[in-house]
Amino acid sequence: MTAFLDTGNAAPVPITAVPEVTVGRFPETILDAVRGGRRLLLLAGLRSSAKGTRLVAALADDASGRIGLVSTVARDSYAALTVDCPAAHYFEREIHEQWGIRPEGHPWLKPVRFPHGGPAIDSTEFFQVAGAEIHEVAVGPVHAGVIEPGHFRFNCHGEQVIHLEIALGYQHRGVEAALCGSPHKRSIHLVETLAGDTSVGHAMAYCQLVEGFAEAACSPRAKSFRVIALELERIANHIGDLGALAGDVGYLPAAAYCGRLRGDMLNLTASLCGSRLGRGWVRLGGTGFDVRSDGLEALRRQLAAAERDMRNTVDLLWKSSSVRARFENTGLLTRQAARDLGIVGPPARASGIDRDSRRDFAAPTYGDRSPAIAVGSNGDVFARAALRWQEIENSLAFLDRPLDDPGGGPVLTPVGALAPNQIALSVVEGWRGEIVHLGVTDASGRLAQYKIVDPSFRNWFALAIAMRGQAISDFPLCNKSFNLSYCGHDL
Amino acid sequence: MLKMLLARARQGNRTGTFPAEPPSLPPLFRGKPVLHAAKCLSGCSICTEICPTDAVQVSQEGPLIDLGRCIFCDECAKACPEGAITFSLDWRLAATERSGLCVAGDAQPPVAMLRDELRRLLGRSLRLRQISAGGCNGCEVEVNATGNIVFDASRFGIDFVASPRHADGVLITGPVSENMREATLMTYQAVAEPKLVIAAGTCAISGGIFRGHREVENGVEGLIPVDLYVPGCPPHPITILDGLLRLLGRL
To answer: If you ran DSSP here, which 8-state letter would residue B236 be given?
Structure first.
C-alpha cells in the first residue's frame, strides 16, 4: 500500500501529498489494493489542466477505518477498472460524462445524469436482449405513485425479467457545481436538499468535512444531538419502508400503522428542531438547537411508546404467511454480487456483508460508541425488511446513552477558516447506507471541488441485478425493499 | 385474524382533528413569518444579505418576505438585531395568486375559492396526478403524508392517482429540472380539461434553493398556469391540506 497516502474520516491532507502514479499504473495500483482486501470508496475526476484531468481513487480499509488516496493524470483515456472491479463501473461512467476521459474497455459507457448541453435521456441506446419471444416494458419517468422520476426498461421473456436497465438523471439540478466555493450562504441548504429524506445524513457529511478542514471540534453535547438526529432519521425511514413494503403486498393494516409511526418519528424530529425532515438541526460547528433535559425525557417516553406500537406492527407483518410468501426468496442479491458491486448500507448487510460506517469510520461523530450492527444473510426482500427492523431496535437501544447523558458544552462552536490546498473525505452512515463527500480546498480555503456519493449511486445497480429472473410483477416490491434515492443519485 | 383485530384495537384511531380543530404544531415549527415594520432599522440589510434565496426585501415600509422564495430556514429572523422578523406557528401559507405570497406585517396569503362551476365538479372529489420534477423528495414525503391515516386527505375526496388520464389536475413538486421539462408538460397535457395545477413547495414556485442553476427552470411559473401555490421547504402536510381545502371551498 506504499502507493497510497493514508488518511482517515474527515482528516484533511495536502493535495500535493497525494501520490501521482502514471496513467498506465493507476488501474493496477487500485486493483492490487482491492485484491488485498481494500474497498473502492470513491473514484472521481478532480480538475483539468493542460496536462490532462487528475483522477483520484480512495480505497477504504474497513477493518482499520483508514482511507488510502492515489491519483493520476489522464490526458484522454485510461484502462477501465470495471472489468476486474465491477464496483468501479458507475464511477467510470461518471468520469467519462464529467471529464470526457475514456475508460478503455468499459462494457457500458452510458451517461449517468445527462447534464446540461449533453444528449437527452431517451436519445441514448438501451441494452437489448435479442430473441423472438423477448418483449420490452418501459416505465417512467412519471410513475404511478407519489415518487420521483426515473426510467425503467425491462427486457422480459413472458413474465420473467431477463434484464432491467435503470436510466436516471431526471432530477439533476447541478448541486455539486453549486457547492463549489463553499462554505457560502446556500451550502448547508443545498446539502439538506441533496436527498430530502436524508437531510440530516448529508448535512452531517458536509459539516464533518468542513469542520475537518477547519480543525474545529464539536462539543460532546453537539455530537450527541447529531447522533440523535441521524438515528431518528434512520428509524423514521426504516419504519416507513416497512409500511411501504406491507402496502406493496396488499397488507394494509401494517401499511397504515407504519405510515402513522413514521409520521410520529418525523414529529419527534420537528419537536426538536422545527422541521419534520430535520432541516436546520445539523449546522457547522454543532447543531442549531439545544434540547433541555425535560425535552430529552419527553423524547425518551415518546420513543418507548412508539417502540411498543412498532413492535406490535412488525409482529403482525412477520407472522402473516401471505406477507412472508411474497417477501421470502424474492429479489435475491447474493453476498458475492453485493461485494463485487460495492453495495452499501442495509442491502449489503442484508446480504451478509458486515460493514457500517458508524462503527468502521466512527470518528469524528460516533467516536468509541457505535450501535450494534445487524447483519443478515439471505439477501432477499425478507432479509432487507428484517434488517430494517433490527436496525430500528439497535438504534432505539443505542439512543439510551445520548438521551441519558448528552454531555456538556455549547451546541454550536464557531468554525474558523478552512486549511488551504487540502483534500479530505467525509463518511457518514445515512439510513440508506454510506454517504461520502469529498472536498478540495483552494489557496484561499474555499471548497474548489466538491464530490458527493449518495448510497443510491452505488446501490441502484443492485436492484437491477436482484430483478434478474424475477417476475416483473415483483418489481414494485423489490424496488421498495431497496428504496433508493433518485435525487441523491442525480444531484 | 385475531391478532390483526387485537392490533387494530391497540393502535386506535389516529386520524387528526384538523380542520375541525387547529393542528397541534411543535413550538419550534417555522410557519408564516410575521414582520414588525416598526422595529426595522433604516439602512440595515442584514436579512436580505443573509437570505440564501433572496426572499427578503427591505423598503421604507419595513421588511417584506416572498413566501414563494422562502425556504423557512429562519436565518433572517436569527440575524435581525431588532427581532423585526419572527416565524409564527401559522400553517396557512397557500395562495391562489403568485403576488399573494409576498407578505408584510402579519398579512395572510389569500386563497380564492374555485368558481362555482369548477367547485361543483371538483369540490367533493379531486383526483390529482403528482409530478416530481427535479425536487429533493422532501415535498414528495409530505405530499405522501397527506394520504396517511393521520392527515387522511381522502376524507375530503382528495386522492392521488396513478395516471394523468384519471386526474382532475396535477400537483407539481421540484424546480422543474431541464431533464423533466418535457415529461412535466406531457403529463399536464394528458389531463383532461378542466384541470387544476398546484405548485407545492418553494422549488415548484420559484426554483427554491436551486434557483438560477442552469439545470432547472426556476419552477413551473411561465411553463403552465398555476391555480394554487403552496410554499414551504417542504410544506407541512397540514399546509398542503389547508390550501387544497380552501381552494375547494371546504374551509
So the answer is: P
According to CATH, the superfamily of the domain at A5-104 is NADH:ubiquinone oxidoreductase Nqo5 subunit (3.30.460.80)
pLDDT score of A282? 97
Number of Cβ pairs < 8 A linking chain A and chain B: 174
Residue B59, domain CATH: 3.30.70.3270
The domain that contains B121 carries what CATH number?
3.40.50.12280
Cell numbers at B148, concatenated = 396517511
> What domain range includes position B167?
116-247
Pairing type for strands B196-200 and B228-230 reads parallel
Q: In this complex, which of B27, B73, B140 lies closest to A280 when CB atoms are compared?
A: B73
Whether B177 maps to a domain, the answer reads: yes
* Residue A103, preceding peptide bond in cis (omega within 30° of 0): no
Q: Is the dihedral of CA B140, B143, B147, B151 positive or negative?
A: positive
**If you search the block for the grid coordinates 440575524, which residue do you land on?**
B79
* Contact between chains at B209 and A189 (C-beta distance less than 8 A): yes
Query: Cβ contact (<8 Å) for B141 and A319?
Result: no
B55 located within any domain: yes
Query: Are A149 and B142 a contacting pair at CB < 8 A?
Result: no
Q: Where are the alpha helices (DSSP H) in A164-320?
A: 175-179, 187-192, 199-214, 220-248, 252-273, 293-318
Q: At what angle do helices A381-404 and A220-248 cross, to 10 degrees?
A: 150
**Mind telling me how many Å the CA of B87 is from chain A's nearest CA?**
11
Architecture of domain A175-490 in CATH? Orthogonal Bundle (1.10)
- Tens of pLDDT along A98-133? 999 999 999 999 999 999 988 888 888 899 999 999
Residue B208 lies in a domain: yes
Cβ atoms A8, A64 nearer than 8 A:
no
Of A116, A185, A193, the CB nearest to B215: A116
Judging contacts by C-beta atoms under 8 Å, the chain A residues touching residue B132 are 146-149, 171, 486
The pLDDT tens digits for B159-202 are 999 999 999 999 999 999 999 999 999 999 999 999 999 999 99
B181 near B207, Cβ under 8 Å? no
B53 contacts in A (CB within 8 Å)?
Answer: 186
* pTM, two decimal places: 0.96
Which residue of B130, B170, B215 to mutate against A (max A Cβ within 10 Å)?
A: B215
Q: Are residues B68 and B151 in the same domain?
A: no
